[in-house]
Automatic annotation (TrEMBL):
Gene3D superfamilies in alphabetical order: 3.30.70.2510, 3.30.70.3190
Protein name: tRNA pseudouridine(55) synthase
Superkingdom classification of source: Eukaryota
Pfam families in the cross-refs: Pus10_C
Main enzyme class: isomerase
Record flagged with keyword tRNA processing: yes
Residue ranges of domain Pus10-like C-terminal in the record: 56-286
Enzyme Commission number(s) of this protein: 5.4.99.25
Family: Belongs to the pseudouridine synthase Pus10 family.
GO molecular function: RNA binding; tRNA pseudouridine(55) synthase activity
Keywords: Isomerase, tRNA processing
Any one GO BP annotation for this protein: tRNA pseudouridine synthesis
């Protein structure tokens, strides 16, 4: 989704932070511009196409399917999922605003096989060149109901018209955000899950976890080691081999790797803390 890679240190947010509060004179002195030549040919207007200012609609979405991506997932021209959260919402919103296209903005994203429940994930739609630019709250509630009744895979809430500045909270200060997750875990080996067995997971937080870029995303992420804080954790027995773990983490934590360790690339991890191999079976985002 992003046109830059914030993990390299040269993201749009970083540049805007550096230049915010600087005067034009200071920026000009620090970054002198080369002299530009004056064009010798004139410019003529060939065609005029009126374009309306973008309309922004914000809200929260929940995702209940473990086979649904957030935005269209295309690899080598092949769409990997038949539909996405963005497409399910767009199918209702675009006709209502009589718009040709929109951009989907969100506060993070979950994996295809991860559900997003609870209050849902904040998102915004940047609706381009809408012929109907204004909808009263009653109409937005109606559109919300139409979306929710059109599919069992997602639901949306709190749809509202916002200004462009309001959408900046989706992108900025992400390092200060915390996320809650619930993971269903499987313990391997000749051990039975009991309250005593899970005791090492209780009361060990806060904990700083060092995570190398997971193998599953290494093809599209730089190889880095990232410190992430595990703020809180609790575990409950499901049966002799399964347990649920509830974690509250710093944004950016790779929770799947926190469970199984990713061949030692994430430390500490639940497998190390319990001294038995642990696999993750299912993951839900509960607060984001």
């Amino acid at each position: 989704m992003k046109s830059d890679d914030s993990e390299t240190g040269y993201s749009r947010q970083t540049v805007e932070t550096v230049f915010s509060g600087r005067t034009v004179e200071l920026v000009t002195r620090l970054c002198p511009l080369t002299t530009l030549s004056v064009p010798q040919t004139s410019i003529s207007l060939v065609q005029e196409t009126p374009v309306r200012e973008a309309v922004y609609v914000a809200g929260r979405y929940c995702k209940y399917s473990r086979e649904l991506c957030q935005t269209p997932w295309v690899v080598n021209g092949v769409q990997k999922c038949s539909e996405s959260v963005e497409e399910l919402i767009s199918a209702i919103i675009l006709p209502a605003f009589k718009a040709p296209e929109l951009k989907f903005l969100s506060s993070g994203r979950e994996d295809v096989d991860v559900r997003c429940v609870g209050r849902g994930r904040p998102f915004a739609l940047c609706i381009l060149n809408a012929r109907t630019a204004s909808h009263p709250p009653r109409e937005l509630r109606r559109l919300q109901e139409v979306i929710n009744s059109s599919t069992p895979h997602i639901s949306v809430a709190h749809l509202q018209i916002v200004d462009k500045e309001s959408t900046s909270v989706l992108r900025y200060n992400t390092e200060n955000k915390v996320k809650n997750y619930c993971a269903l875990c499987l313990v391997r080996g000749d051990v039975i899950v009991t309250a005593e067995f899970l005791q090492p997971l209780q009361g060990c937080t806060p904990l700083v976890v060092m995570q190398q870029t997971p193998l599953r995303v290494l093809h599209r992420r730089p190889l880095l080691t990232r410190p992430r804080t595990l703020h809180a954790m609790s575990a409950e027995r499901v049966n002799d081999k399964f347990f649920k773990v509830h974690v509250r983490t710093e944004a950016g934590m790779y929770v799947k790797e926190l469970v199984h360790g990713d061949f030692g690339r994430t430390t500490p991890n639940l497998s190390l803390l319990l001294a038995y191999p642990v696999d993750i079976v299912a993951l839900d985002v509960t607060v984001c």
